[in-house]
Design goal:
By secondary structure, the chain is an alpha/beta fold. 38% of the residues lie in helices and 20% in strands. The strands form three sheets. The chain has an eight-stranded mixed β-sheet, sandwiched between helices. It binds adenosine-5'-triphosphate and magnesium ion. Adenosine-5'-triphosphate is lined by residues 249, 251-257, 400, 434-435, 502-504.
């Protein structure tokens, strides 16, 4: 618009308009915009059928392509769920007349490294999806006074359809993914597209990937256990449904293994498990899926994979997509377990995008809002109030440290957001103590509410005893002659550490954990040589299970244990110990 309130319009078509057509255009535009208009004609060989009229950032698209798009949008509106299409299509075609309508368009200024800057689109919103040529979608991440920064979700092949100057349209929708029951048992990408070659997935709903976390009144305290099946964790760092417990450790310390065992332990407990793989090798994800299938666990799992080979933008949205997927079930009143493996790689993907968007780098070159990035994700895990159905979403975020340094930027951030951490240590892992849980540095801040009464009773002073043992171990390292009392305490501690070792894919049931703990805390395993511990443990469980089947079932189902029942288990265990020692003395003697 120039100074005398005169609009300038550009008409593009293959052939020039006649004088009569030109004056009709001018009359139409000046009536619509309420001021005089000058029309300039630009030849465009590509527009053989129809024309395009540009006034400011508004565009009237009367090309064949544009009209077909209108038709398609009309069809989409009529039929959002994509049900039986034919009658709807007939209807739409019968009632369709192409309209002259203006839509907001913008134009690509720069493009590269999965980032595009766009001019125009004055009304675009943060988080909106933009439509680029060639079917590429973009997500608005930055609104600046004269341009928009957006990240692209191309799949490599169609990303080069975008060039400087190509047209961008608004979609009016925020980014979201399809969700639903049909996703159970499937492996999908960060946008919900199937990756397992098992065909289309029929979605029940479409959820935005970013939604506000439930408020305080929407929540209730965490009070139901989410058992991992790992004795070292369930006994000392119990996790509750709705809690966020960080799994942290160096590379190759069994972080994924802890999460995977927890998923396997949810079999038959009506918990939906979502595993989000971020920036991992595709082969590791494939292996994990194989393991899940081998243990018949896939049918209650959804795997979302954004491996290292996909763009940083997909890695960035993958955990939010997984969270949206989990929320769908949570708001239906169900229990969900979600694993983010891992958030260090997520932060790196976000750092890449931020630097490309020319945001200023902060500590360790991460952008200033990297804390908020993870807090708004993890805050969405909750135990919902009964009014909202009482569902829950438990989050197990994983973070990789460098040389055990928990004070680096990302680890400290996430430690402060979560309700506790399981700290896995390389030294323990390599000495054979697996899962390599560091008892001193791990914590679960939700506390005993997330533990059944039976477990609480059985655990007793386990943590304290282990702490004492660690201290004593350091003190006695160099002294050779120890008094009897100290030696006994050392072997007791070593026995406890041995007891906490557990092979992969073999989660203990609750009654097994209770029996083992009761026996160990009562020093029943004191004189068992360490190398016989695994056998002893197995046979002890078998013998108590055979003797007390009802009690075991009660422990699994109700999680209660009276004092009398405790004594009952202990006397069974002692009986077994006597038999075991007698048998061994015999075999040693004979
Ligand atoms: P990365 O940093 O590569 O993601 P990670 O910390 O997730 O590694 P895992 O892949 O879970 O570690 O485990 C590393 C190796 O240790 C695997 O080969 C796994 O099988 C083995 N492992 C993990 N836990 C146990 C266990 N309890 N008993 C025996 N082996 C284990
Ligand atoms: Mg891992």
């Amino acid at each position: 618009m120039d100074e005398q309130e005169m609009l300038h319009a550009v008409l593009s078509s293959a052939t020039p308009p006649t004088a009569e057509q030109k004056s009709r255009f001018e009359a139409f535009l000046s009536k619509r915009h309420g001021c005089p208009v000058t029309l300039e004609w630009v030849a465009d060989e590509a527009l053989e059928k129809g024309f395009r009229l540009q006034v400011g950032s508004e565009q009237y698209d009367w090309t064949l392509e544009g009209r077909l798009r209108q038709l398609q949008e009309r069809l989409d509106k009529l039929n959002p769920g994509k049900m039986s299409v034919i009658p709807l299509m007939e209807d739409a075609i019968a009632s369709w007349t192409p309209e002259v309508y203006a839509e907001e368009t913008g134009c690509v200024l720069t493009v590269g490294d999965e980032i595009a800057t766009v001019s125009g689109l004055e009304h675009a919103e943060y988080g909106e999806i933009l439509l680029f040529s060639g079917g590429v979608r973009g997500l608005v991440q930055d609104l600046r006074p004269d341009s928009i920064g957006c990240i692209l979700f191309g799949n490599g092949s169609n990303a080069d359809a975008i060039a400087q100057g190509s047209i961008v349209r608004r979609s009016g929708r925020t980014a979201g993914i399809p969700v639903g029951e049909a996703f159970l048992g499937r492996v999908v990408g960060a946008l919900g597209t199937p990756l397992d070659g098992k065909g289309e997935i029929e979605a029940a709903d479409y959820r935005p990937i970013e939604v506000p976390a439930p408020g305080i009144l929407d929540r209730q305290p965490v009070n139901t256990p989410m058992e991992t099946g790992l004795l070292a964790i369930d006994s000392m760092f119990p996790i509750g449904r709705g809690q966020r417990e960080l799994i942290i450790g160096d590379r190759q310390t069994g972080k994924t293994a802890v999460a995977l065992d927890t998923i396997l332990n949810q079999k038959g407990k009506d918990v939906v498990c979502v595993y989000v793989a971020i920036g991992q090798k595709s082969s590791s994800v494939a292996q994990l899926v194989e393991t899940l299938k081998r243990h018949d666990a896939m049918d209650y799992c959804i795997v979302i994979s954004a491996p290292a080979s996909v763009s940083a933008s997909l890695q960035y949205i993958a955990p939010y997509a997984g969270c949206a997927m989990g929320e769908y079930f949570m708001y239906q009143g169900r229990d969900v377990l979600i694993v983010y493996d891992d958030l260090s790689k997520h932060a790196v993907a976000y750092r890449t995008l931020s630097l490309l968007l020319e945001r200023s780098p902060g500590r360790e070159a991460y952008p200033g809002d990297v804390f908020y990035l993870h807090s708004r994700l993890l805050e969405r895990s909750a135990h919902l109030s009964d009014a909202l159905g009482g569902g829950s979403m438990t989050a197990l975020p994983i973070v990789e440290t460098q040389a055990g340094d928990v004070s680096a930027y990302i680890p400290t951030n996430i430690i402060s957001i979560t309700d506790g951490q399981i700290f896995l240590e390389s030294n323990l892992f390599f000495s054979g103590q697996r899962p390599a849980v560091n008892v001193g540095l791990s914590v679960s801040r939700v506390g005993g509410d997330a533990q059944t009464r039976a477990m609480k009773k059985a655990v007793g002073t386990l943590r304290l005893d282990l702490a004492q043992f660690r201290e004593m171990e350091v003190f006695t390292q160099f002294s050779s002659d120890l008094d009897d009392m100290t030696r006994r305490q050392l072997t007791y501690g070593q026995g406890l550490m041995r007891l906490l070792r557990q092979p992969q894919y073999r989660p203990w049931r609750q009654h097994e954990q209770v029996i083992l703990l009761l026996a160990a805390m009562d020093h029943i395993m004191q004189d068992i040589p360490l190398r016989e511990m695994d056998d002893f443990r197995r046979s002890l469980l078998d013998s108590v299970q055979d003797a007390e089947p009802e009690l075991c079932a009660q422990l699994d189902e109700q999680g209660t244990l009276s004092d009398a029942e405790r004594e009952q288990i202990l006397s069974r265990a002692k009986e077994f110990l006597t038999r075991y020692q007698a048998a061994h003395a015999e075999s040693a003697g004979g």
